[in-house]
Amino acid sequence: MLLSLSNAPRDYAWGSTSLLAELEGRESTGEPEAEVWFGDHPGDPAETADGSTLDAVTGGTLPYLLKLLAAASPLSIQVHPTIAQAREGWGREQALAADDPARNYRDANHKPELIVALSERFEALGGLRPVADTLRLLTALGESSGVRALRERLEGGREEDALRDAVGWILSGDAQREVDEIIAALAEASSEEFAAELDAVRAIAGRYPGDPGVVVALLMNYVVLNRGEAIFLRAGLLHAYVSGLGVEIMAASDNVLRGGLTPKHIDVPELLSVLDTTPEKVPVLLPATGAVTEYPVDVPDFALRRVVLAGAPQTLDIAGPAIVLSTGGEVAVAGADEVALAVSVGSAVFATKDEGSLTLSGAGEAFIAQPGS
């Protein structure tokens, strides 16, 4: 069975007023449009053509949530727990109301994520940079007491311990004077090696003046994706999307531990207990030269393929319930009965697991989401 899906954009403050409208070829509403959810998550299940919602069909059992994401300003710096951490935290917080702002765990699941760029440029922060590299970056900020204090916390000992100590200190609330000094030093900072990083963090500081998350961002890798490129963000990895339009898929979870660039609750001890401070670069996953790109991830919750159609139909096997999201051109989807269902850009089609395979036709681009293996 195939079902047409649509949904209204969510109006988070960081959302773009133009990116989703441009994708769909319509006039902008003038209001922020941040995310469109295609899934059965109870927070905002997708709408079916008969006026119902997808959770009425699936019973809320999809292990993944597929989204269009359009960021005009940075999202909060955040990290997600492993399944074991989520289960422990969920159990520990059972006495808290579901809407309690101090609650860290909304469910007992992990939340790995994959984001694929749809805009020609998509900016993100992902993972913590090696300490030696950050120390070189800090030389561009001069010798204020705040910069010296941060440098001292990063020097000596194991990198992982130094980074954990630095993040905890920045977010503690006791270092605001030093945080302000570091942010002020950004205005005149210059470095040939780290020019892009400094420009990005200066822009973030302009959006979030005085926020300790600006200094956390100085410790993170700055990543720029071209269209079709992707990054996978596993449990424990500190990250934030900065700007651009993308297709995002994640495990069906609301578990977020925040680390700055937000007015929302930040539980520093819990964040540090979940945070993986191993310094590493996030690998960029490149699009294939052929019609179908697979973005490999090592989680069972989801798998995502990008299909570029240029006249020749593409038939692809599906494992479990799938969602086909159109992101460009003219796309139609047919299942076992071979009746093609047109999918307008920015909308989707849900296929029940009994379909087994789907045939995509037309001239355009689509993404197929399904459970992982």
Task: Please tally the β strands and state the result.
Answer: 19
Class inferred from helices and paired strands:
alpha+beta
Q: Give the percentage of residues in beta strands.
A: 25-35%
First-to-last CA distance = 22 Å
The number of helices is 10
Cofactor: Zn(2+)
Keywords: Isomerase, Metal-binding, Zinc
Pfam families: PMI_typeI_cat
Protein name: mannose-6-phosphate isomerase
3D structure, described in words:
Its EC number is 5.3.1.8. Residues 2-130 form the Phosphomannose isomerase type I catalytic domain. GO terms for molecular function: mannose-6-phosphate isomerase activity. Its cofactor is Zn(2+). With 373 residues, the chain is of the alpha+beta class. Among the domains are: 130-218, no CATH class; 292-370, Jelly Rolls. Helices cover 24% and strands 29% of the residues. The chain has helices at 19-24, 55-58, 83-92, 131-138, 145-154, 159-171, 176-186, 195-207, 213-218, 268-274, and strands spanning 2-6, 35-38, 47-48, 64-71, 78-79, 113-117, 122-128, 220-225, 230-233, 239-251, 257-258, 284-285, 292-294, 303-310, 314-317, 322-334, 340-343, 348-351, 357-370. The strands form 3 sheets. Strands 1, 3, 13, 14, 15, 16, 17, 18 and 19 form a 9-stranded antiparallel sheet that branches. Strands 2, 4, 6, 7, 8, 9, 10 and 12 form an 8-stranded antiparallel sheet that branches. Strand 13 and strand 14 (303-310) form a beta hairpin. Helix 5 crosses helix 7. The longest helix is centred in the middle third of the chain and has 13 residues, at 159-171. The model has no long low-confidence stretch (mean pLDDT 96).
